[in-house]
Amino acid sequence: MRLIRKLAKQLGAYWRDRLKQKRLKNYHFNGNIPWAIGYEDYKFDQINAALSNKDLLVEFSQGTLPPSYGVGLDERIVEIPWLWSRLNAEKGRLLDAGSSLNHQFLIDSRLYESKEIAIYTYYPENTQFLAERISYVFGDLRTMPFKDSWFDEIACISTIEHIDKDNSIYGYQVDDIAKSQTKSYEYLKAIAEMVRILRPGGRILMTFPFGIFEDHGFFQQFDQEMVDRLDTLFSSSGQVKYDYLSYTKSGWQFSEADKCSNAKSFNPHTGIGKGNDGAAHSRAICCIEFTKSGLN
Questions:
Q1: Residue 251: beta bridge partners?
Q2: For residue 58, which of 48, 70, 77, 250 sits 20 to 30 Å off, Cα-Cα?
Q3: Residues facing 155 on adjacent strands
Q4: Is residue 146 exposed (0-12), middle (13-18) or buried (19+ Cβ within 10 Å)?
Q5: What DSSP character marks residue 130?
Q6: Angle, to 10 degrees, between the axis of helix 54-62 and the axis of helix 76-84?
Q7: How far apart are alpha carbons 201 and 238 in whole angstroms?
């Protein structure tokens, strides 16, 4: 019976790879169009390659990138390597606030081996890695059930822009969402919760779309005024550092806040913001590294 299960697993992996290669062939044959069939396969392969490239991660940590990096790919191609270049390799409790890292190739990463990982998100996803002892907790980021100073690190990748927005495209409905085209500051409640559950000396590593304020229904793009509010909250509890990355037809590069302030996002669900630069989603992101005051 054990041999049969092993063979079935191997056969399943073989056919999954065959289907993946077929999707990738289709993606390249049709011009590498963002969100076409095969796009996600290609993107995750590129992210995986970036995480395996020690020299590239050093560049991320130093705020530089090679030319033509991530052409035609959405912000995950910079967000996750940026995060990986800053996560420490020490043992500790890591919270994935928003479940942006719930992927096999990330769970298998050596960087995760020393971590006790919890994923906190609003609604269960189809894929869960319970066999790898990943903990899944479900609820609202604005009211988390964890005790004070519990986590050593918190990763929050492209999540806070969805708070208080219409997330029905992800298969569930949230009540009392903000009215369309208006700024919601409910994300500040989630930030306060993250600071509360972070131990003194611990870090929050966070990203979100940045530029002109835009409300796309299921997410809002932050402008400088919204970042300033966030900065006031963070600065009262510790030290905060900012990185900005922007996208052009030449790919992703590190930038500065003022140079990104007019950026507009492409919404692949509505077509709003589509240009001729090959942008797959956001054209600028803000990355935050927050360290909580106090001794460990």
A1: 248
A2: 250
A3: 96, 205
A4: middle
A5: G
A6: 90
A7: 9
The encoded tokens of residue 271 equal 């077509």
CA-wise closest residue to 161 among 214, 205, 96, 125? 214
Token readout for 203 is 């870090």
Q: Is the separation of the CB atoms in 271 and 227 below 8 Å? A: no
Which residues fall within 8 angstroms of residue 295, CB to CB, at 6 or more apart? 200, 201
Contacts of 18 (CB under 8 A, 6+ apart): none
End-to-end, the C-alpha distance of the chain in Å comes to: 50
Q: Cα–Cα–Cα angle for 212, 141, 280, nearest 5°? A: 40
The CB density around residue 274, as the number of other CB atoms within 10 Å, is 14
pTM above 0.70, yes or no: yes
Both structure tokens of 27: 């993606």
